[in-house]
Write a structure and sequence with these properties.
Oligomer: single chain
Distance between the termini: 41 Å
Number of strands: 6
Strand content: 5-15%
Order of helices and strands: EHEHEHEHEHEHHHHH
Shape: elongated
Length: 222
Amino acid sequence: MPIKIVIADDHALLRQGIKNVLSLEPDLEVIGEAADGEEAISKIESLKPDILLLDVNMPHMNGLEVTKCLKADNTPVKVIILTIHDDESYVFEVIKSGADGYILKDIEPGMLVKAIRLVYEGQSFIYPTLTKRLFGELSRQEERRAAPPERRSSKEERLTYREVEVLKLIGRGMNNQEIAQELFLSEKTVKNHLTNIFRKISVVDRTQAVLYAIKNKIVVLD
């Protein structure tokens, strides 16, 4: 079965361009379009897609409001925010809203397809050029406000105390060598912890691990 997609953007030309790109992939199918936030919610309810490609700036309800509404209702659709904004504040707001992905409108077609497939499989996706700035801002915020290791949510219980510590340091943008020095471990031990963390929370890279940490309050955003 193909991955069913709804595109929500108030620009018809952009919707058509994305639809043309996705139509070339045999495992992707655009089953609906919406020109504003209210229509997007209506289409989700009636068509029940797997993925919603959602613009941030739309009439009636913006993308973040739509996302919060869908997540509050436990709607099973995966939401990928589509925007021209590439600053950290937008990334944080998107993550807080519960969105599963964040991509820029100038994304390469191949990367768009990759993002959709990853999110459909349960991963998170953030536009790669934002990763370094996101890590930098997370590091600054963690220095100002960090949740103590013993305050763990139920979703963290699968992780050991040490794995939570490593995950927090990933959120501060540290590389393996810096984490090893901070925790007085060998780099090999850090790599082993990372392997276990990725497996336990079902992610494939550090960016997705940080998104998990934010969503589950391991890394606290201001």
